[in-house]
Design a protein that fits this description.
mainly alpha; single chain; 72% helix
């Protein structure tokens, strides 16, 4: 029963831990470390594993409750390959207990001793039990990790704890030996065992993170199949955790020139797949950085990377492509040769004129061309337009679009809005590429853009609302601005024969066209709420619901329409406080990409 209770939430586990008290905990520890009744020991270890999961407080108290003798008994259980089910739980418990404490890692390292460490290494590299091998690799990775500073390579800065960690890592490296390290790589590149592969990649990252010589040595011992396997792990959609760990490893290893030079031939046939994995949550930036470091300063590689988008899966999000190019623009903003190489790769890529305009806007917004002095902006413009196009292409349509992309990146949205050569979807795509740039739509600029679009003559209401939706979605819009837009839109509706605010009982006989117009009004009004949703606070939503109810009572708005708006607002209410500000990628992909 206690075991079942320990599988509940963290709060419930904390309550159970408190209820056990010192005597109860001691009894569970005794049961978990006793060899007399293996079945009871297994349940007790499972209970302690669950209780210590994601709780630094319980882990510290349990570590103390175990004492030296108890910890030694858990280590004995963890290294007993004859009882894999118990060993797996014991390894998991040791991982939990040492996860956030380098001091406890040092104590465990001493308790393990040379024989214990060798046993864990043997389990990690030769156990037929996948779950057991995974836990052994995770423990080795934890022991080679330094919780207070995971990246620095400075011996003096690391201090005693860091040097102890480095010593542990060196001994794990030595204990593994060439055969053991090869076994870890084999496990890391085996997609049929994803949990083991993730742990193996994690271990490889920790073993090589502070010492480039280890990475060089390991890379040098790998055969072509293992190297290809690591690249495949970083570029295969299906197991996001494996992709993430593999990209972390590759991003570190490619900082080493000897390894970086040998990655490109392996990556080149996998470029489309790399674009595909960049769609995975939490992977986008690591994938973009991995690719950028490979194409950095190389026209041919930049062109190859962008050409790969043509054969990439159709699910590739334009949003992610734009985010990658914007990141690359920031990376090359202060390096003229690298900037020219990237721009040349874009101009000479096998793509459409519209996509080239979007790519231009993305890179130039990453370079932050808008905030450069005018002479610098002009020099960048001239540099871009002077780049020769690929053979057999009429350059004028492309250069015309690139000029528009430059204008957009410089903040000249009038040029885009009024362009006679761009279709409505193309205008919206360029505008969103600019509006989604970090920090572009400040509160003041958002107000200027909102005023600009509302006052534009000879422009359809639907187009205005789509642009306003982009500004609300990406800008720092206020509730006052939102109310102003609602008032403006209501005034726009007054030019129609009927409006959504008209009492349905007074409509009489209306044509199909008028019914369609009312439905369109309803959707347009509702879309404003939807696009402002990310800015809504709990108080704003409650006040808005109260206002709508009052208007329904006063018969200023039909009841069914009021109920629809209130339903939408209550949907937003459920997400207030959990909204992370991440924008909806689908807006990019719903637009015509002019293929």
């Amino acid at each position: 029963m206690l075991f079942n209770l320990s599988q509940d939430s963290g709060v419930k586990r904390a309550e159970l831990w408190a209820t056990l008290g010192a005597a109860g905990r001691a009894a569970v520890v005794t049961a978990a470390t006793s060899t007399a009744e293996p079945a009871v020991a297994k349940i007790a270890l499972g209970l302690l594993f669950n209780l210590s999961l994601d709780s630094g407080v319980i882990s510290a108290e349990l570590w103390a409750s175990l004492g030296a003798a108890g910890r030694a008994a858990v280590v004995t259980a963890a290294t007993n390959s004859a009882k894999p089910a118990i060993a797996k739980l014991a390894l998991g418990l040791l991982i939990n207990l040492t996860l956030d404490s380098d001091g406890r890692r040092s104590e465990l390292w001493a308790t393990l001793g040379a024989a214990g460490r060798a046993a864990v290494v043997n389990t990690a590299t030769s156990s037929a039990e996948q779950a057991l091998a995974r836990q052994a690799m995770r423990l080795l990775a934890s022991l080679s990790n330094y919780s207070d500073d995971r990246t620095t390579k400075s011996w003096s800065f690391l201090g005693a704890l860091g040097r102890a960690t480095d010593d542990r890592t060196t001994k794990i490296w030595s204990t593994l030996g060439a055969a053991g390290r090869t076994a870890v790589v084999t496990a890391a590149t085996n997609p049929s065992q994803p949990d083991v592969a993730e742990s193996a990649l994690f271990l490889l990252s920790h073993l090589t993170a502070r010492t480039q010589s280890r990475a060089i040595e390991l890379w040098g011992t790998l055969g072509a199949q293992d190297r290809e396997g690591l690249i495949n792990a970083a570029t295969t959609v299906g197991e996001p955790k494996i992709v993430l760990r593999a990209l972390e490893l590759m991003n570190f290893w490619q900082e080493i020139p000897e390894i970086k030079a040998e990655i490109w031939p392996l990556l080149q046939p996998r470029l489309a797949q790399l674009w595909a994995v960049s769609q995975l949550p939490n992977v986008e930036q690591k994938a973009s950085r991995f690719l950028f470091n490979q194409i950095q300063g190389n026209i041919y590689r930049a062109r190859q990377a962008l050409n790969a988008l043509i054969v990439a899966p159709p699910t590739i999000s334009m949003h992610n492509t734009i985010a990658a190019l914007r990141l690359w623009g920031r990376e090359v903003s202060h390096d003229l040769p690298e900037r020219l190489a990237l721009l040349t790769g874009i101009v000479q890529a096998n793509t459409t004129a519209q996509k080239m305009a979007v790519f231009t806007t993305a890179v130039m917004s990453g370079i932050d061309i808008r905030n450069h002095p005018r002479d610098v902006r002009e020099a960048l413009r001239n540099q871009l337009l002077a780049i020769p196009m690929a053979e057999g292409i009429d350059p004028e349509p492309y250069r015309q679009r690139m000029r528009l992309g430059l204008d957009a990146a410089c903040g000249n949205t009038y040029t885009v809005l009024e362009s006679p050569v761009l279709s409505v979807p193309e205008k919206l795509q360029l505008l969103e590429t600019l509006y989604s740039s970090r920090g572009f739509l400040s509160a003041q600029l958002a107000q200027q853009e909102l005023s600009k679009i509302r006052l534009m003559p000879n422009t359809s209401r639907d187009f205005k609302l789509q642009v306003i939706g982009l500004i609300l979605n990406h800008g720092q819009a206020s509730s006052t601005q939102f109310k102003e837009i609602l008032t403006w839109l209501k005034g726009e509706f007054e030019t129609d024969t009927h409006t959504v605010f008209t009492n349905p009982e007074t409509l009489g006989d209306i044509t199909d066209e008028q019914i369609y117009a009312l439905a369109e009004q309803r959707q347009q009004y509702l879309s404003l709420y939807q696009n402002f949703g990310t800015h809504m606070t709990h108080d704003f939503i409650q006040e808005e619901i109260a206002q709508i109810n009052l208007r329904v009572t006063a018969e200023e708005i039909p009841r069914d329409f009021g109920e629809t708006l209130i339903f939408q607002l209550r949907q937003f209410l459920s997400t207030v406080g959990t909204n992370t500000g991440v924008k909806d990628d689908r807006q990019f992909d719903s637009k015509n990409e002019s293929k």
